[in-house]
Amino acid sequence: MAKRPNKKQKRPLAAGVRRPPKPVRRRPGKDIQLAPRTVRRTALLVGLLAPLLIIGLLAVATNPDYQTPCTVLAVLVLMAAVIGLMLIRSTGWVIWPAVFLGVLLLAIPTPALRAQLIAHRGVRTPVVVTSAHSGKDRTAKVSWTCGIRREDGRPLPHGTIGGIGCSGTSIGTTTTVLADPAGWAPPATLDDDLSFDGAGVYVTGALAVLWAALTFGAARRSPRGRSRR
Questions:
Q1: Which residues of the chain fall short of a pLDDT of 50?
Q2: Nearest-CA neighbor of 58 among 183, 178, 195, 200?
Q3: Which of 81, 129, 147, 150 has most Cβ atoms within 10 angstroms of its Cβ?
Q4: How far is residue 210's CA from residue 104's CA, in Å, rounded to a whole number?
């Protein structure tokens, strides 16, 4: 019985004829090929404008009235910056360090700038504790937040404190806090280490410099970023 011919079997080529090379498939994860000018412009936006926008938004977030919307906007700016960095160089080691630096940029500026504001503008103000509320974190640790008002009865902007001296037995007691005369930043207790928290401003500056260095380093290592017209 004759064998059935295999349709997939390739016919032999004539003598002296070479088979055409197979098209090279692009491996996933390769750098997106951008024009050199686009790489430079994207690096400027991601490396310089993004950290300035994030720090500026978190500076406005030192006022609790604007903290939530400004923090959300800062997160969106960071996400856009990471996407821009992936467009510059999607492979290599740059993405995870960028995410780590971005998280620190979101976490440090607001408490650091608040501490600086209170340290430079804070005025000792006698207050009366009017309420106390407790809460538990994921480790079941109990923390307290106390509502306060001025000793003379006038309201205090963002009148809440926490930490040492705030508990369920604090209601009706008198204490002294550092209050911002302009009412922008929330008050701080005298037990708060403002010098330590305020040092975060220098850490924020260092993080912005590292972010810029990471971005421009990625742009220089990008295949199109290295090419010249």
A1: 28-31, 224-229
A2: 200
A3: 81
A4: 11
The pLDDT score that the predictor gives to residue 135 is 82
Residue 182, token pair as written in the block: 């302009």
**Is residue 178 within 8 Å of 120, Cβ to Cβ?**
no
Contacts for 226 with CB less than 8 Å, ≥ 6 apart = 220
pLDDT of the residue at 227: 45
